[in-house]
Amino acid sequence: MNYRHAFHAGNFADVFKHIIVARMLAHLREKIGPFRVIDTHAGEGIYDLAGEESSRTGEWRDGVGRLVAAELPANAAELMAPYLAALRACNAGDELRYYPGSPVLARHLLRPQDRLVACELEPRAAAALSRQLRGDPAVKVVRIDGWMALNAYVPAKERRGLVIIDPPFEEPNDLIRLADGATAAYRKWPTGIYLMWYPLKGHEEHFIKRLRRAGFEKCLRVEFAVASPAPAGGLSACGVIVVNPPWRLAAEIRTLAPLLLNVLGRDPGRGYMLDDLAPSLPSVAAGEGK
Question: Which CATH class, in words, describes the domain spanning 5-203?
């Protein structure tokens, strides 16, 4: 595995994904009972935006860099508060130097009764992740293949929880593995929430068809594009699918997505789409940036 997320940390796709993750954790925190977070492809934990990889691409400047410089309306600032609080916790004062990956974001939002399992196979990333999360009794870091982890750690003993599945997409069949892995996990732990992130490259048809046939009672899809497809193949759009989404999540995305498009969008090709992949339910909403 050669993928290094440090080149892309804090870009528009990270911002979009992590704001949704933070919203779901905020909803899980509303009930007293404990929950568990399982991050199958957890990465390094924290990324240095001044480091060699991030400096080489500078992708974060058009992502989290734009967001923290924007003046947010009150309703959006309130919805983003859990995400922004985790971001501030990783940095000193107003300086933006470090970006939290999903396991560090999740750890920041855990309560004493909640637990996190962070899984990573790549040796360098796994070592960095262990350093970032060591000493926390609520966190377990495991060096394991993410697809194996999805089978090994589901179901959790807690009734409630969030499974984050964000593979590196280095293999041509990763989209199919994503659909099949989430479907199998759901059948073992139907009360869990499952978040799947994927890049939009124009080859998602079979992936979406598989998910439509999976039998999910609730399955929310949101796709987010900051620009027209790049001729050179760079990433300009991504998607997030949430199985068992919190009931207010769709409305929150409808509030946040247009704002994020205005902050992060780069050309008139920007836009978003929101619908439900559950076969018995109609589309929830659709929209475009302005």
Answer: alpha beta
